[in-house]
């Protein structure tokens, strides 16, 4: 595949050089390979087919719906353990009836089938640097990048569940910042495998000479580091993107620093654009310090939308959806996200005032960011009710005008490039967004009405090039056609 000019205007920012034209948004659908994602209990709602998540047709129907509506990506979350803190320890029971991210299938297997069933939609797949060797991860993603024509992206996470650590050979989780140090070296290993183990033109497929690939153009990487020793070579020949497009989601100081270095798109979660704005600023500043053009990192905010013809109808829809919620599942999710077991408290205790400082600070920090909630008691019912529709993230509820006004506020104040729309029901939530929200966004010039270039790789969709841009730290590992291999520090 020929490399595009890196000045190529990507779909996502099409027209942004025109001062009068508004920046076109990146819009992704946020899902998980489980009956329950961020709305525990909603799997039983009549507009929710998520109980069919084990059927390929469920996924191809969803992907085709999104592709037809010109969504950019299907973004798939993943976890490697159950939410077993609530009523625990080590009790996944409360998460089971509501299917609170349990059971959960591996997301990467979906990609080739969904790519074959769609034209343009790309696929962001979550995978953790904490529990899988980089050599193996590199092979899994290269395979899928080949089979999807380069339409995969990797959402790099370092994981947060104790249950994952326990099931994957550890007594407890590796310390938080250490996980990011491991992840940083992990990236060096995968860049060497993806970018530099095979020269661009190593594969010859020459029937006359009998040479599938030229052995002089395939080399070991000899990575020797603090956490990994990987001699290579990479098991896979170069795929359309080589390094899959890199998403990342992490909110801590170490998480932001990692994202500013490696990510090409960052997925953020906050209640309000005013709260996301400082984090966006820090990431863009750190990207600059790393020698990167900050606009080469796309910032995507997560949000749950409940929309109907009028504000009243949307509020009624919220109430109806809420009636399917499962409080135990919500508290199980809260336990996994925070490590706090709320079962030891009575129903009416306001957690902002309980004795245990760790509980108080987590609830206070989070609840103080929920708009208009200052005077509410943050007891178990309140927390569960809030989490049942979309988890801890932002929500926009109302008519198309109300919702799109709010999305515009996110773009203007938050300085973001697009959204991951969470689901309450599938396909219900996305059908509503397609029917009510996209036309209003398009009327305001905020969303594409057609795809500029069909069937391109994920990186071309977001950044206009199939391969890592010049300012990305992975690019220096690239072994380009006709060139000598780059020298790695571990070569010496
Ligand atoms: C919006 C958002 C989505 C995330 N999605 C996942 C996920 O699907 N799976 C996962 O293991 N971690 C997920 N995470 C967790 C982070 O990627 C990260 O590993 C964890 O938050 C610890 O890092 P932090 O303290 O920097 O946030 C997500 C985080 C955010 C902010």
From TrEMBL:
Pfam families referenced in this protein's UniProt entry, alphabetically: Bac_luciferase
Gene Ontology molecular functions: monooxygenase activity; oxidoreductase activity, acting on paired donors, with incorporation or reduction of molecular oxygen
Domain Luciferase-like span(s) in chain numbering: 51-414
InterPro entries cross-referenced by the UniProt entry: Diverse_substr_monoxygenases, Luciferase-like_dom, Luciferase-like_sf, NTA_MOA
Keyword Oxidoreductase: yes
Alphabetic keyword roster: Monooxygenase, Oxidoreductase
Family according to the record: Belongs to the NtaA/SnaA/DszA monooxygenase family.
Protein known as: Dimethyl-sulfide monooxygenase
Species, as recorded: Lachnellula occidentalis
